[in-house]
């Protein structure tokens, strides 16, 4: 994406998109291009639907990225993430799709996403995806989500 379109969702009353295809991710110029810094978004109440049973699935998502020329606009990201509430897809598909959609929008220097999914059928599923090696010199904190321990 090389054309900048001003954000259309900020300051507006917007209906909740009913699917990721309907949602619109938006970006804004990075005020500090060339500066190495990490941006983190945490979505501790992400939901989607099981594509087989239609039952809700829940995850704690952590998205870390190093911006280049663009930042993701946070209201658009929130609406995009909540659009998965009616979307049927497996954990792996949701997690990797979100990462790839953000990469397509921003063309960041680096991105990683951790999808920490709550147990389904007694098995928690964690999904991790990143674009490559983190930039040298980047302060990269732990994502802060402990492994699932149940009652253990």
Give helix and strand order, one letter per element, not per position: EEEEHHEE
Sheet bearing the most strands, described? 4 strands, antiparallel
| Radius of gyration based on Cα positions | 16 Å
State the helical fraction.
10-25%
Strand content: 25-35%
Instruction: Write the CATH architecture name of the domain at 27-62 and 69-124.
Output: 2-Layer Sandwich
Per the principal axes of the C-alpha atoms, what is the gross shape?
A: globular
CATH homology superfamily of the domain at 27-62 and 69-124: GTP cyclohydrolase I, C-terminal domain/NADPH-dependent 7-cyano-7-deazaguanine reductase, N-terminal domain
Q: Report the strand count.
A: 6
What structural category arises from helix and sheet content? alpha+beta
Mean pLDDT: 92
**N-C termini distance:** 47 Å
Oligomer category = single chain
CATH class of the domain at 27-62 and 69-124: Alpha Beta
CATH topology call of the domain at 27-62 and 69-124: GTP Cyclohydrolase I, domain 2
Total number of helical segments? 2
Regions with little confidence, pLDDT below 50 for 5+ residues: none
């Amino acid at each position: 994406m090389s054309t900048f379109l001003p954000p259309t969702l900020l300051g507006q009353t917007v209906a909740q998109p009913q699917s990721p295809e309907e949602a619109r991710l938006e970006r804004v110029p990075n005020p500090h291009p060339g500066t190495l810094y990490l941006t983190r978004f945490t979505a501790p109440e992400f939901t989607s639907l099981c594509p087989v049973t239609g039952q809700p699935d829940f995850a704690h998502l952590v998205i870390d990225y190093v911006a280049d020329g663009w930042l993701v606009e946070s209201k658009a990201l929130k609406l995009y993430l909540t659009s998965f509430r009616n979307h049927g897809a497996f954990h792996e598909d949701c997690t990797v799709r979100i990462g790839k959609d953000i990469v397509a929008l921003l063309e960041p220097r680096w991105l990683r996403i951790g999808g920490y999914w709550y147990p389904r059928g007694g098995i928690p599923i964690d999904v991790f995806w990143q674009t490559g090696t983190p930039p040298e010199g980047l302060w990269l904190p732990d994502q802060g989500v402990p492994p699932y321990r149940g009652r253990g």
